UniProtKB/TrEMBL annotation:
Record-stated family: Belongs to the methyltransferase superfamily. RlmKL family.
Designated gene of the protein: rlmL
Enzyme Commission numbers on file: 2.1.1.173, 2.1.1.264
Name of the protein described by the UniProt record: Ribosomal RNA large subunit methyltransferase K/L
Chain spans, region Disordered: 510-537
Catalysed reactions, as listed in the record: guanosine(2069) in 23S rRNA + S-adenosyl-L-methionine = N(2)-methylguanosine(2069) in 23S rRNA + S-adenosyl-L-homocysteine + H(+); guanosine(2445) in 23S rRNA + S-adenosyl-L-methionine = N(2)-methylguanosine(2445) in 23S rRNA + S-adenosyl-L-homocysteine + H(+)
InterPro entries: 23SrRNA_methyltr_KL, RlmKL-like_Mtase, RlmL_1st, SAM-dep_methyl-trfase, SAM-dependent_MTases_sf, THUMP_dom
Listed Basic and acidic residues bias regions: 517-531
Ranges of residues in domain THUMP: 42-153
Pfam families in UniProt: Methyltrans_SAM (PF10672), RlmL_1st (PF22020), THUMP (PF02926), UPF0020 (PF01170)
């Protein structure tokens, strides 16, 4: 008989070796599958004992499939009465297409017709179809103009072991059992098991998949032992006697293997990992002890013996660089502990080659695999070829040391420690709780690091932004440096690694953060709904949000849900200026354009503004602004929030000649092409003059505006503005905070007045 065992792409050679070990004959690896020959008992043994196969199919025939009629004729010739018992239900699983058969549902329907018509002609009755739980599963796989037709012997995929439960939550996504088994197979775990007293070091154990598979092999438990349903159970050709013999043998082996020993050393920094792994071992019937280690205990735990170290480095999301740095740092420590141990092994499931730098050497073998839709590799290292002396950075004080991917990262650590100490003293003196600590002080480590300290919600958070590396810098090297930054910074600044957030600045095709729109208006058309409140009367805090203090006010920040955290630290001085300017006209009016989260509105209200108008295209940003205002006690209909395309809204107000404000703040995006805007796009260099002129027309007599942008190369069109009677004075230097002094081009700021008013910056305190 001929059989086909399917598997994930990349597993073919591993599965072929496993099938050889299980006694299969004629083993031939293909793409995503391995074919073999033997009797039914051989196929049953593979179903029961294979850890890598997804499905085992008995091949009945290969038929022509150049078109639907040829496929129908081929299937009609197969004696289905020998496979589908009277009264049994069936289902067709169709895979693959060709030029004439382009839809798998149609292929399944046509195949079902062929089987049903054959049985109708032989028995006088058509079989029932049950797609959820059929008695007989029929497989039809197209390849070019041929189709493989067979019986599904497994039913549910074999990687469903029968013990799984929804154990994972949040960052603890479960790793599929066959991937866990592939890591162990690549690391020759079977060799350790055969030589007795095997030791597994499982880094990022997650929900325990690798630990369960390792213990299962050590205790000689068949992976299919707990499964209660098989695809062959109601197949008319089933050999019950052969299956019962194999099942009895597996139960006997498991009973005898329960006396075997295995040492499981697990290490995972994520909350809940220890409990999840232990629950998984119990659910799988493994009466073995697992010991959880802290990162610093790895070296002492593997002094003796020849352990297999398995690291799942593919759990962080592709954009979760902070978690990736955490994972690589732990892997580096683990690989360093195992390096030089003869007979040991190191295997990592990794999305890229950054694991090589963490391991301290090149892999002896790299097996390409697919994780979901992403590429990854199973990387196998020879511990004897790995460097036992990984690059380590010794941190100042009692912060200890941290493994790094780039040896020169010790310079970054030293620089960060120095500037952090100076910044902390400055912040304490100035009563500043959220500030920039580091701003590309070393050109090779081109990142900015902002530290936020919570107020009503205690905590410390880091917000790391990477500047784009020059084209002549190797992208891999730049990425490893960034990962080192993310490993070092939380240790130096005493921040939980889980509270480190990373942003890579890009220019989005859809526009800026102001990319959500809706209605416009003022007065009756303005939204005046109060934010949601908790039972204690306080404003509801959204998911992922925290509260921080600045200038005696409380603001909501969120590092995980939006592109920006909600508080632009470089405008700290600008906001203070707005408050002081507002004090000059107590009870006056304030207009905040491109308001984002309304922090400037809070400062103006705190300065005595009798009316604040907060305008933005984004509804979530306006809701955020409303919460910020209400948290600081600024409530009532004299504080309005308007969702509108700011450019169109300003133009409309200008031509109505009805509305004026004493103070206006306009912090514009550099670029936007949101489809919610009336204009086709916005470019600050191209379009700023028209906007500034329009804003000046909204000023009351003696009023002023502050215009700001963050385009480094920005040059104001002074000539056009002067022709329109607008005075523009550069006040940028006075708006750059001390912690941004290394990067004075972080933004540009200008005082806008009307020439007819004759107001100067000096008169306004600038």
């Amino acid at each position: 008989m001929e059989f086909v065992a399917t598997c994930p792409k990349g597993f073919e050679s591993l599965l072929a070796g496993e099938l050889h070990a299980l006694g299969a004959e004629g083993v031939r690896p293909l793409v995503g599958q391995v074919s073999f020959t033997g009797g039914l008992a051989d196929a049953y043994r593979c179903c029961l004992w294979s850890r890598l196969a997804s499905n085992v199919t008995l091949v009945l025939a290969r038929v022509g499939a150049a078109n639907a009629d040829q496929l129908y004729e081929g299937l009609s010739a197969i004696p289905w009465e020998d496979h589908v018992a009277p009264g049994a239900t069936m289902a067709i699983e169709a895979r693959g297409t060709n030029d004439q058969l382009r839809n798998t549902q149609f292929v399944a329907l046509r195949s079902k017709d062929a089987v049903a018509d054959r049985l109708l002609s032989r028995r006088g009755a058509r079989p029932l179809v049950n797609t959820d739980m059929p008695d007989v599963g029929i497989v039809v796989r197209l390849s070019r103009e041929r189709a493989l037709v067979g019986i599904d012997l497994t039913g549910e995929p074999l990687f469903n072991r029968g013990w799984e439960a929804p154990l994972g939550r949040g960052r603890l996504a479960p790793r599929r059992a066959d991937y866990a088994a592939a890591l162990l197979e690549a690391g020759c775990w079977f060799r350790d098991v055969r030589h007795g007293s095997p030791v597994l070091v499982d880094l990022f154990s997650g929900t325990g998949s690798v630990a369960v598979e390792a213990a299962s092999q050590a205790l000689d438990r068949a992976p299919g032992l707990l499964r209660t349903r098989w695809g062959f159970a109601h197949w008319a050709g089933h050999d019950a006697e052969a299956w019962d013999a194999l099942a009895t043998e597996a139960a006997d082996r498991a009973a005898a293997g329960a006396e075997n020993s295995v040492e499981l050393l697990l290490c995972d920094t994520r909350p809940g990992a220890e409990g999840a792994a232990r629950r998984a071992l119990r659910a799988a019937g493994m009466d073995v002890e697992s010991r959880f280690l802290a990162a610093g205990e790895l070296a002492a735990a593997v002094v003796d013996g020849s352990p297999l170290l398995v690291a799942d480095l593919a759990w962080p999301q592709p954009d979760d660089l902070a978690s990736e740095a955490e994972a690589l740092s732990l892997f580096s420590a683990g690989a360093g502990a195992v390096a030089g141990h003869e007979g040991a092994g190191v295997v990592a499931l990794s999305p890229d080659d950054a694991a090589d730098a963490a391991a301290g050497g090149e892999p002896a073998e790299a097996i390409p695999v697919i994780l979901g839709r992403d590429d990854a590799t199973i990387r196998c290292y020879d511990p004897m070829s790995l460097s036992a002396e990984h690059p380590m950075v010794q941190l100042r004080g009692d912060a200890g040391s941290v493994p790094v991917l780039v040896g020169a990262s010790d310079q970054f650590a030293a620089r960060l420690a120095k500037v952090a100490k100076l910044r902390a003293k400055w912040a304490a003196r100035e009563d500043v709780s959220c500030y920039r600590v580091y701003d590309a002080d070393l050109p090779d480590y081109a990142v900015s690091i902002d530290l936020f300290r919570g107020s009503a919600t205690p905590g410390r958070w880091l917000y790391v932004s990477e500047y784009a590396a020059p084209r002549d810098v190797d992208a891999g090297l730049a990425r490893r440096r960034l990962l080192d930054v993310l490993a070092i910074a939380p240790r130096v600044l005493d921040v939980d690694p889980a509270n480190v957030h990373v942003r890579v600045r890009t220019r989005a095709r859809g526009g800026s953060q102001y990319a959500d729109g809706g209605r416009e208006g003022r007065g009756p058309a303005a939204r005046d709904e109060r934010p949601a409140r908790r039972r204690d009367g306080r404003v509801e805090l959204p998911r992922g949000a925290h509260l921080v203090d600045e200038g005696g006010l409380t603001f909501e920040v969120n590092f995980s849900e939006r592109l920006d955290c909600g508080l632009f630290l470089d405008h700290r001085e600008t906001r203070s200026m707005l408050r002081e300017l507002m004090k000059r006209t107590p009870g006056g009016s304030f207009l905040n354009l491109f308001a984002y989260t309304g922090t400037a509105s809070c400062y103006a209200a705190d300065g005595g503004a009798g009316l604040t108008t907060t305008v933005d295209l984004s509804r979530p940003s306006l809701d955020w602004a409303h919460r910020n205002m209400e948290r600081n006690g600024f409530v009532g209909r004299n504080h309005e929030f308007i969702q509108a395309d700011v450019l169109q809204w300003v133009a409309d107000r200008r031509h109505e000649h009805r509305y004026t404000w004493d103070l206006i703040f306009c912090d514009v995006p550099t670029f936007s092409n949101s489809n919610r805007m009336h204009s086709s796009s916005w470019d600050v260099q191209r379009d700023h003059a028209d906007l500034i002129i329009s804003v000046s027309r909204l000023l009351s007599r003696g009023g002023c505006a502050i215009f700001s942008c963050n385009l480094r190369s920005f040059k104001p069109d002074v000539e056009t503005l002067e022709k329109a009677g607008v005075e523009l004075e550069d006040i940028t230097a006075k708006t750059i905070p001390e912690d941004f002094s290394r990067n004075p081009k972080i933004h540009h700021a200008y005082l806008v007045t009307r020439r007819e008013d004759g107001i100067t910056a000096r008169e306004l305190g600038f």
